[in-house]
Amino acid sequence: MNKLRFQTFTIAFITGLTLSSAPVQAAGDNHSRNLAASCAACHGTDGHSVAGTPVLAGMDKKLFVTQMKDFKSGARTGTVMNNHAKGYSDEEFEKMADFFAAQKR
Amino acid sequence: MSLDRRDFLKLGAAGIVVGVFPGCATSAGEIVRKNGQRVVIVGGGFGGATAAKYIRMWGEEKIEVVLVERNTQFISCPMSNTVLGGSRTINDLTYNYDTLKKKYGVKLVHGEVTAIDPQKQTVILADGYLSYDRLIVAPGVDFMFDQIEGLNARVAGESLPHAWKAGAQTVMLKKQIESMRDGGVFALSIPKAPYRCPPGPYERACQVAFYLKNNKPKSKVLILDANPDITSKKGLFTAAWKELYPGMVEYRANAAVMKVDVAGRIVKTEFEDVKADVLNIIPPMKAGMVANMAGLVGAESRWCAVDFLSYESKLQKNIHVIGDSVLAALPKSGHMATSHAKVCAAAIIELMQGRQPDANPSIANTCYSMVSNNEAMHVAHVYRFNAEKKEMIAAEGGGVSAARSEIEGTVANYWLKNVLADVLL
């Protein structure tokens, strides 16, 4: 468990570093940010939840994408998440995941 | 009238104005001196406040944002039905604009807009004017009192609260329910769709029934719906009424209220006269008045047609409309207003920097309804831009809860905290 958490942290950390050293975003890249903004009402601005919903900021990309795919397929049942996940493509999950992974926790 | 010295000090103390008044206190001039590119936003509800924050945040504070709002406090309409049920007070739902000012540098002007000049690109207030490069109009809804004989804004404010904007009327309605006799009738009239918050009236029926069941159990909740059927979460609401409040909630379809006898608390529908102990008439709605000032409302509609890539009005250049006033096949909700606001904010930033708005926007909406003090159910959809129809269309897979539950009641409270933080903090 600890090891897994450590790995998650490491991956998030490296992803964060890579993105923060990237050049200033071109206009087209704002699409990922705009997509991810739809999550904020329940998960907080930029994924910084202030109540009981999961914090998405800094979440490992793979974890985010896997969970969204599971909500979409029904492999995992939630309350509202199945209704939301079905509205997006797998490619869009990747874009949202990139955005959240790059946010400081 | 110009700002007097006391108002000047008040504004200065609030951190809004620095060196704005060029020594002239007699002419009605620019209220806040314009510094570079500016967006003025009229209306600081869920939509307007979100747009203010996101333009500052996403625009890296390069675009000046002036938010005009007549109230100094922000009271959440979402969840305000629970004040009637008793699980919240209005204070629990009351917030302020301090963080928007301090953290994001939004310039707040508390005042009433008297006119908008789309040619000169100015918003006129009693104290002077504000010029803009782009204007966002987010006035919410206004009520069509004239559709019901005997009803007007004064009557609603003094004795027959609609309580469809959270605040003093919510508190008044709560007091009326508390002083109702056991065995009395609470009658709730619902206008024809579209109106603000489609599931809201049915949630209200649940919240009032929750209070009455625990305090005045011989009483009844009578729903007079102008619509031909329950407009939202039908199966879930009818199950809640039957199982949680058996024999207490009565629903009548096609029962538009046409006339009211205020003193006698009697309403007239096409088919009958109904006498109530507490009468809660939710009047038909239209785009907020400010939208009419700017010529944003089409001749054939009560609402404002917009381009869904930017929320720019189809009738006036450089003026955007967001929230309940928008003409769309989208639910009029607080959450939806925040979704409009973000697409609009992103588009305005791109346009001001000489680029095109995101060509493929998607937005989301989740509406929880509290059916008791702790159980809720949801409706949730993702809406995507359809380039052919140029409209926002619900994506496959949206829908409602399988059943009401305590888990959703808990998650609904998480939603409220997060959405309010997303709007104001």
Give the key terms.
heterodimer, A: 105 residues, mainly alpha, Cytochrome Bc1 Complex, Chain D, domain 2, 57% helix, 0% strand, globular, B: 425 residues, alpha/beta, FAD/NAD(P)-binding domain, 2 domains, five-stranded parallel β-sheet, four-stranded parallel β-sheet, disordered N terminus
CATH architecture of chain A: Orthogonal Bundle
Q: Outline of chain A, from the CA principal axes?
A: globular
- Overall helicity of chain B: 25-40%
Strand segment count of chain B: 25
Largest sheet of chain A: none
**Rounded mean pLDDT score of chain A:** 81
What's the CATH class of chain A, please? Answer: Mainly Alpha
Can you tell me the number of structural domains of chain A?
1
The chain-level structural class of chain A is: mainly alpha
Side-by-side strand order of the widest sheet of chain B: 5-2-1-9-21
* Largest sheet features of chain B: 5 strands, parallel
Return the CATH topology of chain A.
Cytochrome Bc1 Complex, Chain D, domain 2
Which secondary-structure class do the elements of chain B indicate? alpha/beta
Tally of DSSP helical segments of chain B? 11
Assembly status: heterodimer
